[in-house]
Amino acid sequence: MFETPDSLPCIALRRIRKGFRMPQGRTEILRDLSFSLFPRDSVGISGTSGAGKSTFLNILAALELPDSGEVLWNGESIHTWPSRALARRRASQIGFVFQSCHLVPELDLLENLLLPCRISGRCLSADGSKRAEYLLERLGLSSHRHSLPMGLSGGERQRVAIARAFMNHPRLIVADEPTGNLDESTGEQVMQLLEDMRQEEQTALLLVTHHLPFSRRMQRQYQLHQGVLAPL
Ligand SMILES: Nc1ncnc2c1ncn2[C@@H]1O[C@H](COP(=O)(O)OP(=O)(O)OP(=O)(O)O)[C@@H](O)[C@H]1O
Ligand SMILES: [Mg+2]
Questions:
Q1: Is the pTM of this model over 0.90?
Q2: I need a labelling partner for 42 at 20 to 30 A (CA). Which of 95, 110, 165, 199 fits?
Q3: Is the minimum distance from the CB of 53 to ligand 1 under 6 angstroms?
């Protein structure tokens, strides 16, 4: 899906509008927002709580639809794609890391890592296991491969979430406040790991963070303010 020359955006948002019904009436969260993401790009997004950062990510990853405007993946409008095809493409091309890790508590680490494979239907089980073992080793979690997430520290859980995000060799990692639940030094380690993995795996990274120093480590930085992205 994202096999584009580097000069062409792998994801583009054109004139996106999105609003929600709120107690005080309908509120516009995104107002005519346009944005392009390129292969191997790294972009930091900051903004106050409620500015619409997660809404922006959800629309870019086609988890939510805009009220108007267009979302293009590899130059193709996603709006006509059947939802199952969209889900498969998303699972094979985008890895997600959230503030709370969203690991499945009943599954051990290895099985948690294999989930994106199963959803995308893309890899054979032997390939999937090999990749999962590699990522657990790379992120220093091999000895925990058969542990349940509950037994891990917050930083370790977030490392598992990062490993899982990279499982399908995605073109893009979307990270929404990945260090939001961590103390400063663990947050720094997780951030460094995310950057190292991005380099090694040659993915694009879209990072939403309240922590401006982390945002500044990206090639481009924006602030989401009053419904549009302003370069920082
Ligand atoms: N499904 C929804 N229904 C109604 N309102 C919503 C919905 N999703 C988001 N909102 C509202 O839209 C606004 C933007 O939400 P969003 O989660 O995108 O903000 P954010 O910038 O990610 O905030 P935070 O930094 O706290 O995570 C908020 O006021 C939120 O309450
Ligand atoms: Mg948010």
A1: yes
A2: 110
A3: yes
> Does any ligand 1 atom lie closer than 6 A to the CB of residue 18?
no
Measured CA to CA, the distance from residue 203 to residue 206 in angstroms comes to 10
For 225, other C-beta atoms within 10 Å of its C-beta total 13
DSSP secondary structure of 164-214: HHHTT--SEEEEESTTTTS-HHHHHHHHHHHHHHHHHHT-EEEEE-S-HHH
pLDDT tens-place values along the chain, 232 residues long: 555 556 789 999 999 999 999 898 999 999 999 999 999 999 999 999 999 999 999 999 999 999 999 999 999 999 999 998 999 899 889 999 999 989 999 999 999 999 888 777 766 667 888 999 999 999 999 999 999 999 899 999 999 999 999 999 999 999 999 999 999 999 999 999 999 999 999 999 999 999 999 999 999 999 999 999 999 9
Closest ligand 1 atom to the C-alpha of 177? 27
Ligand 1: atom nearest CA of 55 is 18
In this structure, the residue with its CA closest to atom 18 of ligand 1 is: 52
Domains detected in the chain: 39-54+82-231 (3.40.50.300)
